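[step 3/7] fold_predict: job queued, chain A
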Amino acid sequence: MRLPSLLMLFVLLCACSRSPLAADALLTTPIYQMAPPDVNRYLALMQASQPDLRKRIAAIGRQNIGQPYMLNLLGEYPYQLHDSLPLFNLEKSDCVVFAEHTYAMALSRSWEEFFWMLQRIRYKDGVIGVATRNHYTERDWNINNNWLVTDVSAALAGPGGPSYLLSVDRAHFLKTRHHTDSAIAVEESREPYIGREQLAQLLPQMQEGDLVNVVSTRDGKFYVSHVGLIVIGPNGQRNFLNSAEPQVREESFDAFFARTAEREERNAREGRNGQKLAGFKLLRLKEPVLVPPAAPQPRP
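[step 4/7] structure written:
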C-alpha cells in the first residue's frame, strides 16, 4: 500500500511552513518537534547508524521523551468521516499511539514506509477503518500484531498463574463510542497475566523493545488500561518508557508503582471509583520481525 496522493499532498503542504533540520540535529531534536520531511531523513539515518532493532526502538522512544500527552487524538479521516481526526500525529501521543509510532519508526527507512507500517500495526490486516482498528488491547492489538510481539505472560507466570475473564462487545462499543453499526458477536476469553508482586523477579527476563500491558481492575472487571515499552538503563535496570499525563517519560517500575499508588490513594480520598493496579501482561518482541502484507485497502 502506498500513501494516498491526497494525504501526501496535505502532509507536504503542512511541512512547507517549517525549515528543514540540519543533518547534525536529527539525532538530538525531539521527534515531536520534527516535520514529516525531517522524520523521513531521520528514519534513514537511524537505520544506517543503529542496525540493532531493539536498540533502535529504545533510541527512537527516548527521542520522544517530553512529548505532550493527549488521549484519543487519532481517527480514520479521510478514509472515514465518523470524525475528523487524522491517521498520525507527531506532536502528541497517548500510550498506545506512542508505542505504535515507536515500533513503526523503528521498522521503517522512510516517511512513506513509516506511514504504511503505522497503519499495518494500528489496524487488523492494515485495513483502515473504525471497525478494523485494534481497539481492545488483549483481543485486537496483541492478536492482530502477533507477527510483531508474542504474549509470554502465561509462560513467565508458570502453572497456576493468575488470569481473568474478558468479555468484548465490539458492536456496543462501536455504536456508543463511534456511532457506527456492526454485527460483530460478543467474544469472551481467559487472559493470563502476571501479578504485580511477581514483576520484580521476572523483569530481568525482559529485553529492550518488549511491550508491557498494564492490567487494572475496576468493579471486579480486569482489563489492560495502559501500555509502554521496556528499555534498559545504564546499570542494566529494566525501565518503563511510556506516554502518560502530562508527557512521555522513562521511569523505573518502582517509580511507576509509586505514581500508581498515589493516584489510587487520591481517588480513595476523593471518593472516586478509580481503577486499581492488578498486574501486567508481558509481550516479547519477535526476532526477526517478518512484516506480513496488508489486505487490499479501500480508498477514500
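[step 5/7] annotate
Residues 5-135 form a domain with the Putative xylanase fold fold (CATH 1.10.3670.10).
The first strand starts at residue 149 and ends at 151.
exit 0
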